[in-house]
Amino acid sequence: MKLITTGVLARLLATTLLATTLLATTAARAEDMVFTSWGGTTQEAQTKSWAEPFTAASGIKVMQDGPTDYGKLKAMVDAGSVNWDVVDVEMDFAIKAAKDGLLEPIDFAAVPKADLDPRFTTDHAVGSFYYSFVLAWNKGAVSGDPAGWADMFDTKKFPGKRTFYKWSAPGVIEIALLADGVPADKLYPLDLDRAFKKLDTIKSDIVWWGGGAESQQLIASGEATFGQLWNGRVFALEKDGADVGVSWNQNLTAADVLVVPKGAKNKDAAMKFLAAASSPAGQAKFAEASGYAPVNTKAKAEMPADAVKALPDAHVDGQINLDMNYWAEHRDEIATRWYAWQAK
Amino acid sequence: MPAGLNGLLPALVLIVLFFVVPVLALLLRSVTEPEPGLQNYAALLGDGTYARVFFNTFLVASVVTIVTVLVAFPVAWMLAIMPSALASIVFGVIILSMWTNLLTRTYAWMVLLQRTGVINRTLMAAGIIDQPLPLINNLTGVTIGMVYIMLPFMILPLVGTLRAIDPMTLRAAALCGASPFQAFRRILLPLSLPGVAAGGLMVFVMSLGYFVTPALLGGTSNMMLAEMIAQMIQSLLNWGLGSAAAFILLVVTMALYALQLRLVGARRISGGA
């Protein structure tokens, strides 16, 4: 046993870790890069609209990985072994992660900023797309059309399971408050006690969805009769011919942004990718494929008129912007209460 | 140094490298992040949520273990007394299920168990129930899904033990006037206990740390510890707290193992009755 000194052990450990990481990424070549997003129909659209044209134009191969995992992102940055070059994350996380030093600043010399919607552009993030939480239902399973968030809390009028986003994120708390009669302009600061009290009234009727595909499966199968869904996922269901209804009443917008983790190995390629993804053409193609709204103000001009009609910005009447900065600031505090409440 | 120990060296290195070092790293993280001290443990122990999740974890693991034993015992007995050619086919089927991807198998249960799933549709069409049974997103769903996945781990050690039992002992019991139930309770059951204990312990310990199946088939109100740790790590990015939770689970599991060693004896658990 004396032969195995701590030094040898440490080196052995380091080599093993290195080997595992290399295996995990199938060893990206110098100018290749890795793009990570949430999987499903969204990432497919991102691959087709951004990665494939980008590779054709630049010769830089884009490898797809996923799903986005904030714990993994932090682990990579902490360990100094970052395998992801561009990651699609929720905007409130991006603001918090930038503060925690987990992200590279965006090189706006390489990424043209002029036409990007300033709401979704920060020093460390470029908008990916923005979306709305909408009320969607399975027409075969619901009698009558739910009109708004308040109906999700009315188990007499609308019996059956309802589905909400499982993770602590902007959306469900606001929905509960709106349903409880809080006016849209008085949502923030969030009254958590009131929100959880409202949620308590339907807790046993809630089925949680953890990812977009799950939300689609729950509604399409009628396992949940209605729920809070990302508009793009409803759009995909409609395209597939599923019998779903949707209400845009008080639709809640939030955004995904693209970030580059601190210490990403292919930073230059990543910045070039960001430029392509946020370009009018890239944004227009993705918006058309996904039903999510573009973050480049010039993109809509390049889209067919009927595709523009499917976007959240066709429903600005009564639309509510979720406050990403409020969430970034109170993320941990809300999350702690959220998970404690869920486990109750 | 006895010659045999040299041969053990690679195994020792593996255990140190892949078990002892990571566990120490985990322990270290739990007392150094975000700052040195025991605040993570204090936060967990003073928090009702954590206690509830901890209780749930042991509840689910216990229920799963008991149901697994009840289902596995008759199967194992059948395998033990079957002609060996037939038994190897049944073994093949059991092992084959272990080769199928865990996620796929869990999703298959979702399709079967959901409100509009195969089971509920059939029962409703047959007029046995009017309302779909709540089989998913609750303890029932988790139990069904996990028992299915754990069965091979119970059946395999149990068959070994049962095969070693001389069938003549049962015949002797019958000749002495024992009813089949008496023969089972007084002969077969006591003799098979080492197998039940070995399999049961394995199932229980594996269930304690299970993640995928409870996450997909369970609801949040019977959340298990692994899922809570995942939230701490992934969503809250609070690794100190997650490490502390994981470490407590590890310590309790080891303590239970030690207790069982005391009660049943190590040789019997390892199958060498």
TrEMBL record, chain A:
Species of origin: Rhizobium loti
Keywords associated with the record: Periplasm, Signal
PANTHER family, alphabetized: ABC TRANSPORTER SUBSTRATE-BINDING PROTEIN, SPERMIDINE/PUTRESCINE-BINDING PERIPLASMIC PROTEIN
Gene3D superfamilies (alphabetical): Periplasmic binding protein-like II
Signal peptide: 1-30
Protein's UniProt name: Putative spermidine/putrescine transport system substrate-binding protein
Alphabetical list of Pfam families matching this protein: SBP_bac_8
This protein's record includes keyword Secreted: no
Top-level taxon of origin: Bacteria
From TrEMBL, chain B:
Sequence ranges assigned to domain ABC transmembrane type-1 in this UniProt record: 54-260
GO biological process terms held by the UniProt record: transmembrane transport
GO cellular component, one term: plasma membrane
Predominant location: membrane
CDD domains on file: TM_PBP2
Membrane topology according to the record: Multi-pass membrane protein
InterPro entries associated with the record: MetI-like, MetI-like_sf
PROSITE patterns: ABC_TM1
Annotated transmembrane regions: 12-32, 53-73, 79-100, 141-162, 191-216, 236-259
Gene3D superfamilies: MetI-like (1.10.3720.10)
Localisation: Cell membrane
SUPFAM superfamilies: MetI-like (SSF161098)
Keyword list, A-Z: Cell membrane, Membrane, Transmembrane, Transmembrane helix, Transport
Pfam short name (any one): BPD_transp_1
Family named by the database record: Belongs to the binding-protein-dependent transport system permease family. CysTW subfamily.
Protein name per the record: Putative spermidine/putrescine transport system permease protein
Organism: Rhizobium loti (Mesorhizobium loti)
